[in-house]
Design goal:
The chain has 149 residues and is α/β, with parallel strands linked by helices. Helix content is 15%, strand content 42%. It has helices spanning 61-73, 137-146, and strands spanning 7-9, 19-27, 35-42, 45-49, 52-54, 76-92, 97-111, 123-125.
């Protein structure tokens, strides 16, 4: 999806040229309607993220989200379908720069217990109750879009 048809979250000053970033994330529901999330410290505050992350050069969004889920949660991922994409502007404090992330979203399922060492523990959260805890507004939006699928 290109910028003109993607929903956009956040903004940066008109005179700022943000760093471009491509990313892929998955929405996984449990039997109580909660979504899978991971937690990371951002400038001294615990923030929530959907499983996934940045794409490597020459990697498709599908390959990226499967790799990221394996790294973050140590689990296999079955992608059920591709959802919409979104643009998210945010400030990268550790780099002192603005970022324009094109985030690709998928609906998927986790299979089995962790099979490899992993970076994060799996959390199950209600995104409507925890929307202020997500670092990216586009993650809350994507989770709400996926509940209609």
């Amino acid at each position: 999806m290109n910028d003109s048809s993607s929903i956009t979250f956040g903004a940066c000053a008109p005179d700022v040229i943000p760093n471009e970033r491509l990313a892929a994330y998955v929405i996984v529901h449990d039997n109580q309607g909660r979504v899978a999330a991971v937690q990371a410290d951002v400038r001294g505050r615990d923030e929530l993220w959907l499983p996934g992350g940045g794409m490597l050069e020459h990697e498709t969004p599908e390959e990226a989200v499967v790799r990221e889920v394996r790294e973050e949660l140590g689990r296999d991922l079955l992608i059920r379908c591709r959802l919409e994409s979104a643009i998210q502007y945010f400030y990268q404090g550790d780099r002192g720069a603005w970022c324009k992330m094109t985030a690709h979203f998928f609906l998927g399922e986790l299979h089995g217990p962790p099979i490899t060492p992993h970076e994060h523990e799996l959390l199950w959260v209600d995104p409507t109750e925890h929307k202020a805890d997500f670092f990216h507004a586009c993650h809350v939006w994507a989770a709400s879009q996926a509940t209609n699928k």
